[in-house]
Amino acid sequence: MATQLASSVADETAKPPRPRGGAGPKSAALAVLIFVAIVTTWHVLATSGAVSPLLLAPPGDVLAALGQMIADGSLWPHLSATVQETLFGFVLAVVAALVVGSAFAFSPIVRNAVYPYILISQTFPKVAIAPLIVAIFGYDLAPKVVLAALLAFFPVLTNTIAGLTEVSDDEVNLFRSLRASKWQELRYLRIPNALAFIFPALNSAAVLALIGAIVGEFVASRTGIGYAIQQFTTTGEVAATYATLIVLSVFGLALYGALTILERLVRRNR
Amino acid sequence: MATRTLADGPARATAAPSAITARAVTKTFEGKGKLVHALSDVDLEIEAGQFVSLIGPSGCGKSTLLKMIAGLLTPSTGTVSIDGATVTEPLPQIGVAFQKPTLLRWRNVLDNICLPLDIDGTRNAEGEARAVDLLGLMGLAGFEKHHPKELSGGMEQRVAIARSLITQPSLLLMDEPFGALDEFTREDLNDELLRVWQHEPKTVVFVTHSISEAVFLSDRVVVMSARPGRVHANIPVELPRPRERALRNTPEFYEAIRHVRAVLDDARLGERKGEH
């Protein structure tokens, strides 16, 4: 905190910086404890016979299956297929949502006319049309990308519109009084304002894109994590099924982490 | 241009203060099927370099009048002109401060003050040095890198005022800038505003609800009445300058307040009679 305060401000306290999330080491210790508890419970349930081995494999076996998949390379084609579907779908959705969202934001007529339909498509369970999409786009990459994009599109779209339009009258008047051009208003006010809305939506969009890809694989595919899960489940390879789920979870986390880094980079430069 | 700092050196060579003329200005808003007469036949003359406050009951159109001078609203009839030029859009020589500080939360204090320079495309080291000087003059030295969320309401408004001054406007328009602040902070900011004004002579139009604030700051208080808004009276404030905190304890100050209050009551009571 600055020390050269003028006397007139000395009695006026600046708000303290927000406390950082959690209490450091204590939170970390608790997190480890929870992890140990989960794995232990899992192990006991799986080995004591409380849960059928057809439904649950012990953690050790799952880890072994995971190691096996990685060692013999059988994981990679599946993982690479799902990663591609998810990323292509995500990028397609984000680009489309940003373009369409900006168009909506700057044309109230279009926005008001089209918004009811957007709302309908938002509330519609899009996975229900997965078989139809597969029928249209075939068995390979395309239908999964389309499904992933379809699911990821809407949160980004609505938040783009909100972020670009939800500026106060005072802010608009400030920019007008500074004789800012429409472009400058966009550059200095609306886009930076929209980023605060868009980044949280990107996190949901990434998760939804992954869901879309997996659902597409469930419906019809020859490869991918969703396909592998189905195969392992039908053939009774319980440990391998769980190993695949762990891979899926790690990929989800990696996406989230990548977006967090991207957000930090973009916000620093706005 | 001289490179003396704002706080120490004499006044900078800024553009000459602006003069304002409003002629037969009316403003009618259309709302919910009926017409609202916000301003009716307002004539106002503000000489260059004067500090003028607009005061009056809610709905008297004082903010509307200010927004017209700022070029943010256009009169329904009549004209507003600054230095002889009719106002049809915001003119480059104005600086505006709003009731809310309206800082951009993703920019730090220095970048917020320099926003007008970014928009003009004239931000350079000299401009930033001026921003730092203004910040010091507003009692916020050392806060350049802070973000708005780390500031109190009074500090945010100080930054907003520094921003409105960064382009060295010849006319400063202030729309109840201290309305949301507590009494003590408001008086501090009044002191600081006068200090800045004495360093950089400029015309100021100041909208307020506070009689004591209007008297303390102004050369002239314009009392407005409501429904429809019009100029009720022009009251010159003859208190000596420079004005300091101590002035607030003098009988002359109280006498001036009493006078303005009497005229304001007259404006409000007249309006109430007119309602029935």
From TrEMBL, chain A:
<feature type="transmembrane region" description="Helical">
    <location>
        <begin position="87"/>
        <end position="110"/>
    </location>
</feature>
<feature type="domain" description="ABC transmembrane type-1">
    <location>
        <begin position="79"/>
        <end position="257"/>
    </location>
</feature>
<keyword id="KW-0472">Membrane</keyword>
<feature type="transmembrane region" description="Helical">
    <location>
        <begin position="117"/>
        <end position="139"/>
    </location>
</feature>
<feature type="transmembrane region" description="Helical">
    <location>
        <begin position="28"/>
        <end position="45"/>
    </location>
</feature>
<keyword id="KW-1133">Transmembrane helix</keyword>
<feature type="region of interest" description="Disordered">
    <location>
        <begin position="1"/>
        <end position="24"/>
    </location>
</feature>
<dbReference type="InterPro" id="IPR035906">
    <property type="entry name" value="MetI-like_sf"/>
</dbReference>
<feature type="transmembrane region" description="Helical">
    <location>
        <begin position="239"/>
        <end position="262"/>
    </location>
</feature>
<dbReference type="InterPro" id="IPR000515">
    <property type="entry name" value="MetI-like"/>
</dbReference>
<protein>
    <submittedName>
        <fullName>ABC transporter permease</fullName>
    </submittedName>
</protein>
<keyword id="KW-0812">Transmembrane</keyword>
<keyword id="KW-0813">Transport</keyword>
<keyword id="KW-1003">Cell membrane</keyword>
<comment type="similarity">
    <text>Belongs to the binding-protein-dependent transport system permease family.</text>
</comment>
<feature type="transmembrane region" description="Helical">
    <location>
        <begin position="145"/>
        <end position="167"/>
    </location>
</feature>
<dbReference type="Pfam" id="PF00528">
    <property type="entry name" value="BPD_transp_1"/>
</dbReference>
<feature type="transmembrane region" description="Helical">
    <location>
        <begin position="188"/>
        <end position="219"/>
    </location>
</feature>
Automatic annotation (TrEMBL), chain B:
<dbReference type="Pfam" id="PF00005">
    <property type="entry name" value="ABC_tran"/>
</dbReference>
<keyword id="KW-0813">Transport</keyword>
<dbReference type="InterPro" id="IPR027417">
    <property type="entry name" value="P-loop_NTPase"/>
</dbReference>
<dbReference type="GO" id="GO:0005524">
    <property type="term" value="F:ATP binding"/>
</dbReference>
<dbReference type="InterPro" id="IPR003593">
    <property type="entry name" value="AAA+_ATPase"/>
</dbReference>
<dbReference type="InterPro" id="IPR050166">
    <property type="entry name" value="ABC_transporter_ATP-bind"/>
</dbReference>
<dbReference type="InterPro" id="IPR003439">
    <property type="entry name" value="ABC_transporter-like_ATP-bd"/>
</dbReference>
<feature type="domain" description="ABC transporter">
    <location>
        <begin position="20"/>
        <end position="251"/>
    </location>
</feature>
<keyword id="KW-0067">ATP-binding</keyword>
<protein>
    <submittedName>
        <fullName>ABC transporter ATP-binding protein</fullName>
    </submittedName>
</protein>
<keyword id="KW-0547">Nucleotide-binding</keyword>
